[in-house]
Amino acid sequence: MHDAPPTNDIDALFARAAEARQHAYAPYSGFAVGAALVDRDGRVHAGCNVENAAYPSGTCAEQSAISAMIAAGGRRIVEIAIVGPGHSPVTPCGACRQRLREFGDADTRIHAGSEGGARRSFTLAELLPEAFGPDHLAAGGPP
Ligand code: THU
Fold first, then answer.
1. Is residue 139 part of a domain?
2. Nearest residue to 131 (alpha-carbon basis) of 112, 103, 91, 90
3. Which residue out of 62, 79, 102, 130 is catalytically annotated?
4. Known catalytic residue: 126?
5. Which domain range does residue 55 map to?
6. How far is the CA of 49 from the centre of ligand 1 (A)?
7. Sign of CA dihedral 46, 12, 23, 26
8. 77 band by pLDDT with thresholds 50, 70 and 90
9. Under 8 Å CB-to-CB from 30, ≥6 apart: which residues?
10. How many domains in the chain?
11. Residue pair 86/116 in contact by the 8 Å Cβ criterion
C-alpha cells in the first residue's frame, strides 16, 4: 500500500494517476488513461484502462481504480484524478460517472487532467445531475 497524499494534494494525486497511465493497455484506441482516487480512509487506489480485442470488453481507468479500492476494502470515494492524452482535460465517460455515483456522493471531487497539463475540477453532482443511485432502490417492491 502506498502512502496517501493529503486530500488537498492534487498534484500528488495527479502524479499517481500519471504513474498508472504508464501501464495502460490501450493498443486499439491509442488513448492511454490513468486514474487515482482517495478513499474515505485517505488511501489512494489507482487504475488504468485495459482494452480488449472484443472492444466492448475493455475497461476504463476509473473502473480499474474503483475495483482496486473495493478489493482493498475501501468503499467511499472522496476525490479522483484522471489523466489522458492531449490538451483537453479528460472527463469520465457516462458509464463511469454512474460507477462513481455508486461509491461517491454529490460533493465527490473529480479532477480531469491531460498530458498537456490542462486541468478542470468538478463535483459529481455537476457531472451527473439528478443521478439515479442506491437510495432509489429503497422504494422498490412488487409492481
Ligand atoms: N477511457 C478511460 O479509461 N477513461 C475516461 O475517462 C475516458 C475514456 C478509455 C476507454 C478506452 O480504452 C479509451 O479511453 C478510448 O475511449
1. no
2. 103
3. 62
4. no
5. 10-132
6. 6
7. positive
8. very high
9. 85
10. 1
11. yes
Q: How many CB atoms are located within 10 Å of the residue 36 CB?
A: 31
Burial of 53 (0-12, 13-18, 19+ CB in 10 A): exposed
Mean of pLDDT values over 38-66: 98
pLDDT at 1: 40
Is 50 exceeded by the pLDDT of residue 2? no
Please give the grid coordinates belonging to residue 85. 492524452
Mean pLDDT of 13-31: 98
- The string of pLDDT tens digits covering residues 79-138 is 999 999 999 999 999 999 999 999 999 999 999 999 999 999 999 999 999 999 999 999
Instruction: Ligand 1, residue 64: give the atom nearest the CA.
Output: 3
Distance 58 CA to ligand 1 centre (A): 9
Is the whole-model pTM more than 0.90? yes
Check pocket membership of 127 for ligand 1, CB cut-off 6 A: no
User: In degrees, to the nearest 5, what angle opens at C-alpha 11 toward C-alphas 9 and 17?
Assistant: 110
The residue contributing the CA closest to ligand 1 atom 1 is 60
Check which CATH number belongs to the domain holding 100 and give it: 3.40.140.10
The C-alpha cell at 33 is 488513461
